[in-house]
Amino acid sequence: MTGKQKQPSLIQAKKEAEQLRKLIRTHDRKYYVENQPEITDQEYDRLVKSLKNLETAFPSIVSDDSPTQRIGDRPLEGFTQARHRELMLSLDNTYSADELREFDARVKKFFKGESVNYVAELKFDGVSVSLVYEKGRFIRGVTRGDGEQGDDITANLKTIRAIPLSLPESEEGSRIPFMEIRGEVYMPRAAFEALNRQREKTGEQVFANPRNASAGSLKQLDSRITAQRRLDLFCYGFGAVEGRRFDTHHEALDFLKKAGFRVNAHARKCRDIEEAIAYCNEWESKRKKLDYDIDGMVIKVDSTDQRSRLGVTAKSPRFAISYKFPAERAETQLLDIEVNVGRTGTLTPVAVLKPVFLAGTTVSRASLHNEDEIRRKDVQIGDWVLIEKAGEIIPQVIEVIKHKRDAKAGPFRMPLRCPVCGGPVSRDPEEVALRCESLTCPAQLKERVVHFAQRDAMDIEGLGDSLAQQLVDSRLVKSCADIYSLTKGKLLALERMGEKSAENLLKGIEVSKNRGLSRLFFALGIRHVGQTGAQALARHFGSMEKVVSASLEELKEIPQVGPVMAGSIRQFFESALNKTVLERLKEAGVRTREAGVHPVSGRLAGKVIVFTGELAGFSRSRAEELIRHHGGGVSSVVTKKTNLVVVGDSPGSKYEKAKRLGVDIINEAEFKKLIGQ
Ligand code: IVH
To answer: What are phi and psi of 477, to 5 degrees?
Structure first.
């Protein structure tokens, strides 16, 4: 005899595996559902290991609902869609006790004096799912989706140990032919904090809150990732059920509990709405003690018969309503005010806070929006402030606790220069935000490059989002002008850049040099200058130099350019940094004249001409075009700088003004002569 253990027979193995599975299921339930483990983790692991060994030796005995099958070994290609037998609706929200009383009045009116009992439950802040069981076996798990159908996320839900893969035969649930069980998957706060700590360490983006973390985890195509996320769930109701009826909601919850599902312990039967309201108030203050997030309470009519008589509206059932808690607030100290520059150049003041725990996360920064807000709330560095967090929105500073202010830091002033690039900042007259408009500002560069290269602008094929990011990150491009000094050698140093793509890109860049002035104006991303504005500028001035040196007044003369756009253009060209970029674009050979506008003569060079009244022989735009062809410019207002006014039929006030200012005036015939016709 060798020392080897004798292999059991197939029949023995099958029997043994069944016993182990039963044992593991029992301990899963005690641990994950009832919160009362009876064995140590090591003992539990030993049971699972024995089962795994048996199943490896006898692969034919593996069953779908074996605890070893909770984690798949291969990612999915994508989720398939699965239909709900009964719609998954949502709830109407209320925000006050009075609104709850109105709900009660509606229900009472419907039943004309019948007594109504309610069940009040916590409203878990997670992701709602539908668990489908056929004859006691978990066959499918689906997200809410659009209410009619959702993603089949069975593999991911199987990793949640609180979800039984099969119901014990002794339980009534195992004999029910079909049931959809509705519940909420959530991530306990501790698991959420640990996950974010780990993600921070590995440089991954952190989740904003436990709900986002749950949703993100359930969306994984690889269930091995979901399995590491420590998700949990509470079951709170049914969809379609075959072969079983429950008279009341609390009876249904009892059934779920007995069948091995995790049901929250705080559901309470209430005899009237006042009792339910009192219970809501109780949880509003106790919610912080929970180790999971709730965002309100749900009040449900208890009787199944009454529920079906009430029916549903298009979106929500009439038998239930949610009561949402007001956003949580916390008090903390404002340590500093930092100014961030967004990707479009907006300067946003951010409060740096003494870290404080609020609604499930530690908050150390909050938005202050803009300078006006800071002034309105009189926020000063060192102040004690009240902060609030509503849903996934970034925390906000609500108000200053004035009586706690000791030393006065004085009013906060926004910087006069961009904190990222040092360029000038300006305030849009129509907006409160300050903005950096520098073409070289690193905070905005990637977006600027993407905009510059887009189809309606310089149309550089192959220069999209990810390449722009690479060019900026590698510091090959520090302003849009650098695009034109890219070489094959430089491009090949980038990751994922092959010879062919580099060559094509360079070709695209070369071609883009000839797009013409109006595209270039648009590509520069000057605030308020869209395609139409850019075209008008190009048409009117004909060259970049003329626009750069145009005065505010001259800019305003163009009909398509209002005072806001004119101001913004001036601001843009006043920046020395921007002027350098323009110079470099020109040096690189980028066309800075409008394509197709080549003055045929210089006989009107430098002349500004204004039309008033109708011309018989030309349309206005044709007349303007002719002037530009001879090197002149057109304006719509008469000023001292106007060289000539062309008067047609029934002229307007411009004629009077020209006379007053002593500007030369000619008629249509003289105009014709002037342009050589
Ligand atoms: S009952 C017809 N009970 O709230 C919908 N929902 O806005 C019946 N939720 O999609 C849902 N806790 O994701 C119900 N105790 C609870 C709940 C709850 C959280 C979520 C659920 C639903 C949403 C409705």
So the answer is: -120, 115
CA 661 to chain centre: 57
Give the integer Cα–Cα distance in Å for 47 and 38. Answer: 13
pTM for the model stands at 0.61
Euclidean distance between CA atoms 650 and 637, whole angstroms: 17
Verify whether ligand 1 is closer than 6 Å to residue 323 (CB atom).
no
Taking residue 474's Cβ as centre, other Cβ atoms within 10 Å add up to: 13
In the three-class reduction of DSSP (H, G, I as helix; E, B as strand; rest coil), residue 233 is classed as: strand
Non-local (6+) Cβ contacts of 178 within 8 A are: 85, 132, 133, 134, 240, 241, 242, 243
Beta bridge partner(s), residue 654: none
| Residue matched to tokens 């003369």 | 557
Across 384-422, b (16+ Cβ under 10 Å) vs e yields: bbebbbeeeeebbbeebeeeeeeeeeeebebeeebebbe
Give 598's pLDDT tier (boundaries 50, 70, 90).
low
Could you say which of 15, 123, 201, 288 is catalytic? 123
Give me Rg for the CA atoms of the chain.
36
Using CA atoms of 403, 405, 411, 413 in order, give the dihedral in degrees to the nearest 10: -130
Encoded amino acid at 393, one letter? I
Q: Which two tokens stand for residue 315?
A: 């979106």
Distance from Cα 165 to the centre of ligand 1, integer Å: 23
Answer yes or no: are the C-beta atoms of 281 and 129 closer than 8 Å.
no
* pLDDT value for 4: 53
Contact yes or no for 157/129 (Cβ under 8 A)? yes
| Each residue's pLDDT tens digit, 421-438 | 998 898 876 677 888 989
Q: Are 264 and 291 in contact (CB under 8 A)?
A: no
Cα–ligand 1 centroid distance for 121 (angstroms)? 10
